[in-house]
Amino acid sequence: AADPGDSKKPDYLVLKDIVKDFVDGSGGIVRAVNSVSLSVSKGEFVTLLGPSGCGKTTTLRMIAGFESPNGGTIQLDGKDITQVPPFQRNMPMVFQSYALFPHLTIFDNIAYGLKLRGVSREEMRHDVAVASQMVNLVGLEKRYPGELSGGQQQRVALARALVLKPDIILFDEPLSNLDAKLRIQTRTEIKRVQQLLGITALYVTHDQSEALSLSDQIVIMNKGEIVQQGPPEAIYNEPNSPFVSDFIGNANFLDGEVVDVQNDQVTLSVGPARFTLPGSRCPGDIRSGEAILLSVKPEAIRVTGSAGTGAELSGKIDVSAFVGPITEYKIIFGDGIITALQPNRPGKTHVYRSGEEVALEFEVESLRAYRA
Ligand code: ATP
């Protein structure tokens, strides 16, 4: 049963004020990671998410011990491991490129770390069999990596990590080389095994749907710093900045103005439309007359029949893309283009075509305002 006093599990992996500088080609210093502090509990799946160059891979590599931080400490289970070499940390990494040994069989690839540990032949056979079964590789043990598909090779890499009974598994964009369908299958597989074994996992990706679907906690990084962290729903529904709103929710940003602030209710105008939001979804201390940026998620825009029927907001379909479960619209709105996603329900929804005038309604519950 849930114990209300036990909402936060004890910290397992703790990063404190981690800094990493690199020297670039012209002798200048690049701060790749700037004062990153982070706590991961045992059994948690934590994802570092952010755009290219934000420092997520460098952070993961410091946790693995492949890079040494210029400042700060890394602790595992209360012990300082900042200076411990990678082979003495029980934190295998699963790479985007699989990094299997091409001249070794699948069995020997999976058994590799156990051999280095001097495990008996019998124990090795047993552990490799368990790991192979766990990731559905049974029957492929005698093959070589070149004789497997990309998805199977990545499952070998996962089995090779699992067999070590790791303290933490580190994943560096492991699905990037797989095609769309296999990416989703393998993602489900990773999550299933992680949950089953209660493994602590740290996962790096720039793919928001991977982060949302896999994680207990998402850590969003930008320019070497953590800008927000929390469970997927909290990050998605309560982004704390336009950057996060855009990165995780592909939000549209519209120029608006504060019309009125009363009893923690803020009324905003966008063109002729008015929206009243609770203060919690607006910047603090905003005043009437101030310019704001309104974030509107694509799925929070309802596209309906022809404009001119008294609708306050209207636009013109620029591009209409029917993709099965949803239709994605690019809509000319004011001086810009906004994106709207509509679920398709046969007989109930209509797919509008390029050039059609449409009325637009914004779901007020999902709007957020930021300082312009
Ligand atoms: P990506 O998704 O593209 O891998 P990332 O978020 O993982 O991006 P990092 O690879 O951690 O980002 O890089 C962060 C910054 O540090 C970048 O500006 C990068 O150019 C720089 N950097 C990373 N490794 C080195 C290195 N060995 N030497 C110099 N600069 C580096």
TrEMBL record:
SMART domains: AAA. Keywords: ATP-binding, Nucleotide-binding, Transport. PROSITE patterns: ABC_TRANSPORTER_1, ABC_TRANSPORTER_2. Residues 13-248 form the ABC transporter domain. One of its GO terms (molecular function) is ATP binding. Coiled coil: none annotated. GO terms for cellular component: ATP-binding cassette (ABC) transporter complex. Pfam families: ABC_tran, TOBE_2. This is Iron(III) transport system ATP-binding protein.
